[in-house]
Amino acid sequence: MSCFSSFCVTPMASPPLLFSSTRNPSVGGDSFRRGFRCCPLSLSVSCGVSVGEETGGSAAPTLREVCGGKVPESILKRAEEIGYTVPTDVQRQSLPVLLSGCDCILHAQTGSGKTLAYLLLVFSAINFQKSAVQALIVVPTRELGMQVTKVARMLAANPVGGENMQKACTVMALLDGGMLKRHKSWLKAEPPEIVVATIGSLCQMLQKNIFKLQAVRVLVIDEVDFIFGSSKQVFLLRKLLTAYSTIDSRQTVLASASIPQHNRFLYDCIQQKWTKNDVVHIHVNPVQPMPSHLCHNFVICGKKERLHVLLSLLQKTDLNLG
Ligand SMILES: Nc1ncnc2c1ncn2[C@@H]1O[C@H](COP(=O)(O)OP(=O)(O)OP(=O)(O)O)[C@@H](O)[C@H]1O
Questions:
Q1: ipTM of this predicted complex?
Q2: Which of 8, 53, 247, 288 has its CA 20 to 30 A from that of 322?
Q3: Does any ligand 1 atom lie closer than 6 A to the CB of residue 113?
Q4: Is 240:202 a contact under the CB 8 Å cutoff?
Q5: What is the second-level CATH architecture of the domain 5-316?
Q6: Are 136 and 205 in contact (CB under 8 A)?
Q7: CB within 8 Å of 307: residues ≥ 6 apart
Q8: Which of the four pLDDT bands, split at 50, 70 and 90, describes residue 198?
Q9: pTM surpassing 0.90?
Q10: From the CA of 113, how far away is ligand 1's center (Å)?
Q11: What is the SS3 string spanning 174-197?
């Protein structure tokens, strides 16, 4: 029987992130995973409780804790050096699911941290001793490909003082407008562990048999809605998902900021064999565009009273205009 899980989260509080965002409550990844693993039918979970309520007031987990020992130490150290210590909502919700090996649809707004979530999965799945393409990240544009490659290379670099921690992992950017000849030699001589590719360049390589996907353990399609929205790219993407590799040989992650008609999309993923039957839909939905602890007040007053009221309001709050 077809079975997928849909997981919706409503944001509640705000974390110390490198970007401005709202934050949502945490739901224990383990209990959630146990729930959907045992459930033969589709499951939709919608949560609107704060972290405090959920965890009995204990502190929110760190990125390291959320990774549960499944991401190599050198990568976690690098992530912490870069400043990724507190997971974003989508990372907190998705990492336990991703790292358990499930296919996943990451559905969260732009800038919510989907890239780091799937990259941590990629690094957890790679055998650093093996020189073969083990993870493939497909992007719709060269620009996005360059961004993802940059973050992947930053994470793959040795952490300070950890030069001998692990064999270096290489990341190839196989993007439209790049030098495919050079990539061809590189792929033959010493295949990188991770390839970030635009679908056009990737399929050129696949058609010419320069590149094969037999060692690929993780396939990520970023901005999947964008690719499916382009008639040129969608044909190649379908081929990639079903002909060049199969669902049983890989873990599939489809990421997007918007998935119109997501129930229909999930149904298609299963029916068309783009993902396994137990694909998990993680939908982090920013219902509140403003942090919930921020409150707005207003006072109606005449001209004379204005300064006095403003000053007394400032005294009551910790707002610092200086
Ligand atoms: N755990 C974290 N802590 C602090 N900053 C983070 C964390 N995760 C991601 N960021 C930062 O948040 C910003 C946005 O992240 P990212 O680009 O991964 O979002 P995204 O959801 O993949 O966006 P898009 O849909 O545009 O691809 C980046 O600058 C990234 O460095």
A1: 0.97
A2: 288
A3: yes
A4: yes
A5: 3-Layer(aba) Sandwich (3.40)
A6: no
A7: none
A8: very high
A9: no
A10: 3
A11: ECCCCCHHHHHHHHHHCCCCEEEE
